[in-house]
Design brief:
Distance between the termini: 31 Å
Strand order of the largest sheet: 5-2-1-9-20-19
CATH class of the largest domain: Alpha Beta
CATH architecture of the largest domain: 3-Layer(bba) Sandwich
Structural class: alpha/beta
CATH topology of the largest domain: FAD/NAD(P)-binding domain
Helix content: 25-40%
Radius of gyration: 23 Å
């Protein structure tokens, strides 16, 4: 969600304080009269925002899930499984789902786009909940209402899984106009499906020269993904015999995961293509000159995929639940129960939650099943013991046939440091065809669980 998408509660109040107060459920007949008059006098587009959205309703407690990614889809399904009486509503601003996990394999022509693409309607119909395409503008936790571009929706429980936003300021691009240009010309490929389509066109049409990629610092979506993408781009260029130099600038001091496997891939498979430079923190970008700056050097490029550091969705900040101590503005939540501190009716999961677990799809699915159980238990007055999410990640490094390596890990809480550590990690850093096939089988199983019976 961009700044242009956000309409904060402050702007609502500026436009029509009396209207918002009445629409939020101010008691008494006078409030009802005020709502009718104020909404009726408001411009049609604004008035629609202040009316209750026309949606199906059942008699059970309503759980609104914002965000149809891996986390939101999982929670919507398993809420109904743990408590069939729940009235579950999934809201997403996109018309359909496109998977970012496995997208690097699609960029390298190893799978078709329809393998990654699925219908929110199928998920809702097969798992007995409702889906609505809408953009969430604001949340009023005092009155338990979610404001969207089709009207407000009341909730008993709210799950926020809105994903990430790019933080271009952390790579020296603070001007809003320059950020918009950077996003369109050199998308990172981890927020919208349009980014993936643009990136694939870049790879297919590249004729030679320097192709720039980078690895952000901090926590970001799928730790292995930028290194995997460099391998997939190199594999395509190698297959097509494109004279290209893939410059991979890592803003970290070294490869963050599957280090030995990726170094071996860079050295053995793509020595003539990938130039890997760690400790290369981007500090500025000249869009017109096609140059990036680091603390010590400047690099020219012919085309690029720029993955900036990320932050939690701006919606988290807008509604006032971001942790002020979080450099990535993650939500201020209970680390074991996922609810907002002080509010056990609002939960934050997936990329915007504060725990340092992987931001990969499998982790989101695993923790989503747990959070659905926590919410169902809370509604029944039952406590659910904490359990670690599971992270499973496949990293493809070679094509025709697809070959991949893998990692599986859990997490444990260190009572002395008050931090989460890795636990029971199993890593296979040798890539092979069996790993490539396992990555496809894993994805098929996940899509089946999220969308189909």
């Amino acid at each position: 969600m961009t700044d242009h998408d956000d309409i904060s509660r402050r702007r609502f109040l500026q436009l029509s304080g009396a209207t918002l107060a009445a629409a939020a459920g101010a008691p008494g007949a006078a409030a009802a009269t005020q709502t009718k008059t104020a909404v009726g006098d408001a411009p049609p587009g604004f008035a629609r925002l202040l009316r209750e959205a026309s949606l199906p309703w059942t008699s059970g407690a309503r759980v609104v899930v914002v965000g149809g990614g891996w986390s939101g889809l999982t929670i919507a399904k398993y809420l109904k499984r743990h408590n069939p009486a729940f009235d579950v509503l999934l809201i997403d601003k996109h018309p359909s789902f496109v998977s970012f996990p496995l997208s690097n394999s699609w960029l390298a022509d190893q799978i078709q786009l329809d393998f990654l693409s699925h219908s929110f309607f199928d998920a809702a119909l097969n798992h007995d909940y409702h889906f609505v395409q809408a953009t969430v503008l604001d949340v009023d936790r005092a009155t338990r209402k979610v404001y969207t571009d089709i009207g407000f929706v009341a909730y008993d429980y709210l799950v926020l899984a809105p994903g990430i936003d790019y933080d271009y300021a952390r790579i020296g691009v603070g001007d809003a106009e320059q950020q918009a240009l950077l996003f369109q010309r050199y998308p990172g490929g981890f927020v919208s499906a349009s980014e993936l389509l643009t990136i694939k066109h870049k790879i297919r049409s590249f004729r030679g020269g320097t192709f720039l990629l980078n690895v952000p610092n901090g926590d970001y979506r799928c730790t292995a993904a930028p290194y995997e993408r460099a391998c997939m781009v190199a594999a395509v260029f190698k297959k097509r015999r494109v004279r290209a130099r893939i410059l991979l600038l890592d803003m970290n001091t070294g490869i963050k995961i599957e280090k030995n496997g990726f170094h071996r891939a860079f050295d053995e498979l793509y020595k003539d293509y990938i130039e890997y430079l760690p400790s290369s923190e981007i500090s500025g970008i000249d869009l017109d000159g096609k140059r990036v700056s680091t603390e010590f050097d400047e690099y020219a490029f012919d085309d690029a995929i720029l993955y900036p550091p990320i932050r939690a969705s701006r919606l988290i900040d807008e509604i006032g639940i971001a942790n002020p101590q979080s450099p990535q503005k993650a939500a201020n939540t209970d680390p074991f129960r996922y609810h907002v501190v002080g509010d056990e009716h609002v939960y934050v999961t997936g990329d915007s939650r504060g725990q340092p677990f992987s931001k990969g799809g499998h982790t989101a699915h695993s923790e989503g099943r747990y959070v659905a159980e926590v919410i169902a238990g809370h509604a029944l007055g039952k406590d659910v013991a904490w359990r670690s999410p599971q992270t499973m990640c496949f990293s493809s490094v070679e094509i025709d046939p697809l070959q991949a390596m893998s990692i599986i890990t859990y997490y444990k809480y260190n009572t002395q440091t008050k931090l989460f550590d890795f636990d029971r990690t199993h890593m296979i850093e040798t890539w092979d065809v069996q790993g490539g096939q396992a990555s496809l089988a894993w994805a098929e199983g996940m899509y089946r669980d999220l969308f189909y019976r």
